[in-house]
Amino acid sequence: MAAAMQPRTGSRLFLTLAVMAATVIQVLDTTIVNVALPHMAGELSASTDQISWVLTSYIVASSIVMPMAGYLTDRLGRRRYLLISIAGFVVASALCGIATSLSEIVLFRLLQGVFGASLVPLSQAIMVDSYPMHERGKALAIWGMGVMVAPILGPTIGGWLTETVNWRWNFYINVPIGVLSFLLAARHVPDTQPKPRAMDWWGLAFLAMFIGGLQYVLDRGQQEDWLASGAIRAAAGVLAIGLACFVGHSIASKRDTLIHVQMFADRNFSAASIVGGAMGLSLFGGMLLQPVLFESLLQYPTFDTGLAMMPRGIGSLISMLIVGRLVGKVGAKPLIYFGIATGVLGAWLMTRVSFDASAATMIVPLLLQGVGVGFVFVPLSAIAFATLPKMLATEAAGVYSLIRSIGSSIGISIVNVTMTRGAQASWGALRGYVDPYRFEVQQYLDPLHLKAQGAGLALIAKQTAVQAQMLGLLQAFWLIVASFFVMVPLVMLLRPGRGGPAPAVAMAE
Question: What is the structure's pLDDT at 80?
Answer without folding.
Answer: 92
